[in-house]
Amino acid sequence: MTVIRKCEIRIDVQDRTRIVGFDMTRTRFPGDDGLFALFLQGRLETGGVKPKRLEIRYQNRRLDRIKLGVSKAKPQANFEIGLNLLGGPVSGSMDVVAVFGPGDAVRVAEIHVERERIESGYKPAMAPVILSSMGRSGTTWFMHLLGKHPGIYIHDEYPHELLGAFYWVNMLESLTTPLAADRIMSKWKMRDHTGKSIRTHVYYRQGAPDPILRYLGGAYIPQMAAFCQQSIDHFYQALSNVKSASSGSPIRYFSEKSLPFPSLIKELYADAKEVFLIRDIRDNICSALAFNAKRGTQDFGRESTVSDDEFAAYRCAEFRSLYQSCLANRDTALLVRYEDLVADPAAAASRVLQYLGLEDSAATVAAMVNQARASDSNLDFHKTSASPVRSVQRWRKELPQSIAQTCLRLAGDELRALKYQE
After folding, report:
1. What is the pLDDT of residues 242-294, one digit of tens each?
2. Residue 357's domain is classified under what CATH number?
3. What distance in Å separates the CA atoms of residue 87 and residue 3, rounded to the nearest whole number?
4. The domain that contains 83 carries what CATH number?
5. Taking a C-beta distance cutoff of 8 angstroms, is the pair 278, 326 a contact?
6. Does residue 159 have a cis peptide bond before it, meaning omega lies within 30 degrees of 0?
7. Distance between CA 115 and CA 355 in Å, rounded?
8. 99 and 232 housed in the same domain
């Protein structure tokens, strides 16, 4: 079977000062059009400033990364990668970018692909609701509220982060990603059962025996997809039986926070939905810093940065990426602003239910809101503001002026597009 009908690579270096030279080509061999993967190789030369890595992105979401061995003493590097096409476009383009730091990425190439869809042959009983957001944007409250509807299952234990589907989707992506030079391991490593080291099959790589490679990169992919979908169904059916029996109605959806590889999920699930929950990045930063202080931890990216100013730049880059992904999916996804959710949860819930095609009568929505508002010690601890109203525009009192200006400089266009006040 021919999987890849078309593949074109266009070099497009947007910063010739820092990226002096770049080349990328597809490594061809007999039968490679029958794989759900591209084997790529190339060369990069810097102008003295070292990029941290190369990334391949689709709809502004990272599909894979490529390690680079460049330095001031060695400004040139060769690279190769076996790119898994699961999660990428069926017909569309991926960007190759050189990443220098938070929010600092330079596009160097574009890969256009047309390929066959993955047809697992499995008919799932429930569809996923993908919640795409950033931490400290109301995701816990949103899940707490949405889980009160009888037609959707969300694990009710705080903080609603049961990683059921996450596990099997990540398994599917991980075990179908071909090996490249920096990932190849000895076949004897597969016998190390005590180390739990099984990853991608050691023969799923360029140069492997042709029949094995064609199976692992071809027919094996939909077989693995069917197994993962079936496992997700059985997992959630086991969890949701009590809720379904008590409500007397079938459960159509399940949801988890920040499911990986949204494009892959939507390719496998025709009825999948995606909700983007977005909050003013300035309030988001305030909330993240306050929650870290409350718990005595360094999370949400703060652990990877040396100062609050650098942390703000890191979060702004994530905010911009989230908004660009929202724009790329605006024809099929739903945007919910945090501020609208906390100001009128009933109206926000009704919008989401209509988008999902679930029953949204006034009585149903009111019951959801009333149940969600019932006191919960875990949710109370999760808060960093005295009330939902006070969590909006808190940045005006809490955020240092320098960080507020950084947010406007780095994410001003996105803030204005989302109708946030300056």
Report:
1. 888 777 788 999 999 989 999 999 999 999 999 999 999 999 999 999 988 88
2. 3.40.50
3. 15
4. 2.60.40
5. yes
6. yes
7. 29
8. no
